[in-house]
Design goal:
Elements (H helix, E strand, L loop, with lengths): L5 E5 L1 H7 L5 H8 L3 H8 L11 H11 L3 H4 E5 L2
Antiparallel strand pairs: 1-2
Keywords: DNA-binding
GO molecular function: DNA binding
Protein name: Cro/C1-type helix-turn-helix DNA-binding protein
């Protein structure tokens, strides 16, 4: 399998839209995590090189009552 043709995609943008277009600032304040990191997840910035802490994943999943599978998916890149 060619692992360079797949990437991790964060669906945080879709999740925020489902929650009345919640702002990144509000989410950052609510879960106590850096806004810049949340913005990077929102825009899927450098996901192939990003290290996402387990504590941030847990915070997002608990806050939105979702699973990691709801938050992330594997996508093929062209």
């Amino acid at each position: 399998m060619d692992f360079e043709k797949v990437t991790l995609h964060c669906k945080l943008d879709e999740i925020l839209k489902k929650h009345n277009n919640m702002s990144v600032l509000k989410l950052s304040e609510e879960i106590g995590h850096r806004r810049t990191t949340i913005m990077e997840l929102l825009h899927n910035t450098n996901m192939d090189k990003k290290k996402i802490s387990a504590s941030l994943i847990v915070k997002l999943c608990v806050y939105f009552d979702i699973t990691p599978n709801d938050l992330f998916e594997i996508r093929r890149v062209d």
